C-alpha cells in the first residue's frame, strides 16, 4: 500500500494525502471531512508512514526535539505536555527525552536527535545549553533555550529576579505577622552556578536590602535540587547552630519536598511551621498551611514566545523574560 493507492481510494490527490498523514493538512486548508476520510482509509488498509523514507524525499524534517531535565515535576511536566500540543498544531512531530540533569545525557540526547534529522532542538533547563548549540550548529540545526538561558541561541526564561524579590517581601510580611519581627531569611535549594538560582538570589538579597535587613551568608544553602539534599542541608544547618525561627525561601518544589520532610520529622509543623516561600507552584499548597507563598511560572506564555521564535526562524542570542504569576490562594 502506497500513498498513491490511498489517494486513489480516497478520491484525493497524493499531495493532499501526504499533508493529512504528516499533520500539515490544516495549513493546506484541506477540509476536516476529507482528512477524516483519508485517515480512516489509511487505518483500514493498515498503512504506516515510513518517516525515514519520507524524510529523504523532503527538504525539511517535521520532527522537533526537546531535551528536558525532569518529568516528576509539575513545571517541567506541563512544559512537555504543552510543547507536544503546540508542536502538533504546526504539523510537527515532537520528540522529548528526559536527562535527569545529567550533562552527558543532554549531549547524547542532542546527538541522537540529530541522527533523526530533527528540524530544531529545544534545550529546556539544560546544564550547558551552549554545548548543545555548538553540536547542532555543525549540522545546521537551529537551537532554542527554555527555562535556562544560553549565549549561542535565543532563550525564553522566567523573570527570576522580580519573582524572587516579590516572594521574599511576602515571606517577610508573613514573618512579621507570625513572629512580630523580621529576621534574615534562609535560602535553600538550587545550584549557585546556574542562572536561575543566581537571579533568584539577587532578588532575595535586594529584598533584604530594601527593608534594611542584613543578609547572613550561612543562611544561603544552595545545595542542589534533590529533596534529599535539601533535607540533609537543613539538618546540617541546625546542627551548626543555625536559627530556624525565621522564614524560608525555597528554590523549587523539588527542594520543598525535602524541606517539608525535615520539618515533619523535626516537629516544625502547625504553630512551629515557619513562613515559607517557594519559587514554583503546586495546587496542594493549600494543604500545607497558610504561611506559604508560591509563584507560578507562566508556561503558556513561555511556549508561545518560544514558538514565535521558531516560526520566525530567529537565531539571535537574545533572552526573553516572562513575568511569573502569583496565584491567589483562598
UniProtKB/TrEMBL annotation:
Give one Pfam hit by family name: Peripla_BP_4
Q: Which Gene3D superfamilies does the entry mention?
A: 3.40.50.2300, lambda repressor-like DNA-binding domains
Origin species, per record, is Serratia aquatilis
Q: What are the record keywords, sorted?
A: DNA-binding, Repressor, Transcription, Transcription regulation
This chain belongs to which protein, by name?
Substrate-binding domain-containing protein
Which superkingdom heads the taxonomic lineage of this protein's source?
A: Bacteria
InterPro entries found in the cross-reference section: HTH_LacI, Lambda_DNA-bd_dom_sf, Peripla_BP_I, SBP_2_dom
Q: Which SUPFAM superfamilies match?
A: lambda repressor-like DNA-binding domains, Periplasmic binding protein-like I
- Cross-referenced SMART domains: HTH_LACI
Amino acid at each position: 500500500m502506497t500513498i498513491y493507492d490511498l489517494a486513489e481510494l480516497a478520491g484525493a490527490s497524493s499531495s493532499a494525502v501526504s499533508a493529512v498523514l504528516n499533520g500539515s493538512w490544516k495549513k493546506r486548508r484541506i477540509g476536516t471531512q476529507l482528512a477524516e476520510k483519508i485517515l480512516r482509509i489509511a487505518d483500514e488498509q493498515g498503512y504506516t508512514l515510513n518517516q525515514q523514507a519520507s524524510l529523504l524525499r523532503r527538504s525539511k524534517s517535521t520532527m522537533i526535539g526537546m531535551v528536558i531535565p525532569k518529568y516528576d515535576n509539575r513545571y517541567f511536566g506541563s512544559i512537555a505536555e504543552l510543547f507536544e500540543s503546540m508542536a502538533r498544531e504546526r504539523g510537527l512531530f515532537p520528540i522529548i527525552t528526559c536527562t535527569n540533569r545529567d550533562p552527558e545525557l543532554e549531549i547524547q540526547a542532542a546527538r541522537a536527535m540529530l541522527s533523526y534529522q530533527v528540524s530544531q532542538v529545544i534545550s529546556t533547563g539544560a546544564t550547558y545549553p551552549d554545548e548543545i548549540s555548538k553540536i547542532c550548529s555543525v549540522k545546521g540545526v537551529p537551537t532554542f533555550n527554555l527555562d535556562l538561558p544560553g549565549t549561542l541561541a535565543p532563550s525564553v526564561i522566567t523573570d527570576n529576579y522580580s519573582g524572587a524579590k516579590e516572594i521574599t517581601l511576602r515571606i517577610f510580611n508573613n514573618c512579621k505577622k507570625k513572629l512580630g519581627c523580621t529576621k534574615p531569611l534562609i535560602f535553600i535549594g538550587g545550584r549557585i552556578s546556574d542562572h536561575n538560582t543566581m537571579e533568584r538570589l539577587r532578588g532575595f538579597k535586594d529584598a533584604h536590602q530594601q527593608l534594611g535587613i542584613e543578609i547572613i551568608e550561612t543562611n544561603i544553602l544552595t545545595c542542589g535540587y534533590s529533596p534529599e539534599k535539601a533535607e540533609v542541608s537543613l539538618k546540617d544547618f541546625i546542627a551548626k547552630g543555625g536559627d530556624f525561627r525565621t522564614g524560608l525561601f525555597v528554590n523549587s518544589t523539588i527542594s520543598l519536598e525535602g524541606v517539608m520532610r525535615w520539618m515533619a520529622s523535626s516537629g516544625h509543623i502547625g504553630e512551629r511551621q515557619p513562613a515559607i516561600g517557594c519559587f514554583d507552584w503546586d495546587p496542594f499548597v493549600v494543604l500545607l498551611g497558610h504561611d506559604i507563598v508560591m509563584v507560578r511560572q507562566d508556561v503558556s506564555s513561555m511556549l508561545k514566545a518560544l514558538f514565535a521564535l521558531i516560526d520566525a526562524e530567529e537565531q539571535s542570542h537574545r533572552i526573553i523574560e516572562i513575568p511569573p504569576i502569583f496565584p491567589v490562594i483562598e
